[in-house]
Amino acid sequence: MKKFFHTIVYLCFLSGLLAPVAPVFAEQDKAPHIKSNSAILIDQKTGNVLYNKKDNKKMYPASVTKIVTAILAIDSGKMDETVTVSKNATLTEGTRVYLNEGEQIPLRKLVEGMMVNSGNDAAVAIAEYLAGDVPSFADKMNEFAKKAGATHTHFVTPNGLFNPDHYTTAEDMAKITQYAMKNSEFRRIVKIKNLPWHVKGWDTTLVNHHRLLWDYPGTTGVKNGYVDKSKHTLVTSVSRDGMEFIAVVLKASTSKVAYSDTTSLFDYGFSHFQRQKISKGTLIEDPAGRKHALKEDLEVTLPVGEHVLKNVSASGELTLKNSAGDSLAAVQLFQPSPKKEASQMAAHSSGEATGSKLALQLTTRTALFFYSGFLMLTALMVMIRMRNKRRRALQRMRRYEKNYTFIK
């Protein structure tokens, strides 16, 4: 009986070993606790997402909208032209740089005033100069957003003053900022801390509203914002040790929360991630065993200590992935001939079918081990129970015989 029991225990243990085990990721408890309603952290160079929280949720951006207005002005090639300020621009609500009707100011100066002091009036003056009126400029903004990959964004104003149809997402703002930060003139403007400002009736020095330019080492811009409906919004870029990250936080309850969340994201990013580069000319093997030279450098951003995984499809596409299987970068490694592609696809499909069959067999085998172990354990429990019942019956019989002998 004892030998039978040991056998069953061994089979149950073996079936447990063969069962699938869920993966455990070492970094899962190290991500920061973000209080803002929506947030994202990306690598400016690779575009890889390092952290996200409701990053596709539609939100009101407030003044971070001006990032779009600024890059459109720079891309127009008209930065040295002179703008005549309209009455409509001077009547704009909110934060201003106090423009006067009829005043003539270089477009470059308007962009600087808009980004440093968040001048809503400057944003309207820019929009009217580049497109004739605000609605036409909004069309240009939306066209640009689509080209930048911001597919959940719709702009109505050049300054971010509230409109229910003026919205974006954290992910979209990160993509827009990634594009803008590739422009050297944009980078120069968003890094300005103090800007001498001389207009009719106002002679002062404007101070950049983005606090992290002073308080967080490596900060290179970009823009903060606030309206009552959006609460506090903040887009920031930081560069350290050859790496540059972009953080976006939307709808923070207070300015303090927005800045705290942002620095937490950067602390997390710079301490837990690194770039890995696969150099041009590296030989990479395709499914058929042939090797192809990489035609360009590829870089991806991964957790420290993790190595990039390479996958080459039968159609010749190289995909770089992390350990979770997320696609980080893709490039066409080679162009197969139609005949070779068809045969490789067939072989690939066959391999997938074989792999699926093996996986099914393994799953079935594991299930059988569990089931047989369960049946054996149940049988053992029944046998033990029957043996105990028999033992109790014998004990009762012996007591009866003993009592009967005594009475007799």
Short description:
The chain is α+β, with helices and mostly antiparallel strands. The chain contains eleven helices and 16 strands.
How would you describe this structure in keywords?
single chain; about 400 residues; alpha+beta; Beta-lactamase; 2 domains; 5-stranded antiparallel β-sheet; 3-stranded antiparallel β-sheet; disordered N terminus; disordered C terminus; cell shape; Peptidase S11 D-alanyl-D-alanine carboxypeptidase A N-terminal domain-containing protein; cell wall biogenesis/degradation; hydrolase
3D structure, described in words:
This protein has 408 residues and is α+β, with helices and mostly antiparallel strands. The protein has two domains: 236 residues, Beta-lactamase; 54 residues, no CATH class. A five-stranded antiparallel sheet has the order 2-1-9-8-7, sandwiched between helices. A three-stranded antiparallel sheet has the order 14-15-16, with no helix packed on it. Strands 3-4 form a two-stranded antiparallel ribbon. Helix 5 packs across helix 6. The protein is elongated. Pfam families: Peptidase_S11. Keywords: Cell shape, Cell wall biogenesis/degradation, Hydrolase, Membrane, Peptidoglycan synthesis, Signal, Transmembrane, Transmembrane helix. Belongs to the peptidase S11 family.
Helix-strand layout with pairing:
Layout: H1 2-18, E1 38-43, E2 49-53, H2 66-75, E3 82-84, H3 87-90, E4 104-106, H4 107-117, H5 120-131, H6 134-147, H7 170-180, H8 184-190, E5 194-199, E6 202-207, H9 212-215, E7 219-227, E8 231-240, E9 243-252, H10 255-272, E10 273-278, E11 283-285, E12 291-293, E13 298-303, E14 309-312, E15 317-321, E16 327-332, H11 338-407
Antiparallel strand pairs: 1-2, 1-9, 3-4, 5-6, 7-8, 8-9, 10-13, 11-12, 14-15, 15-16
GO molecular function, one term: serine-type D-Ala-D-Ala carboxypeptidase activity
Domain Peptidase S11 D-alanyl-D-alanine carboxypeptidase A N-terminal: 29-254
Signal peptide: 1-26
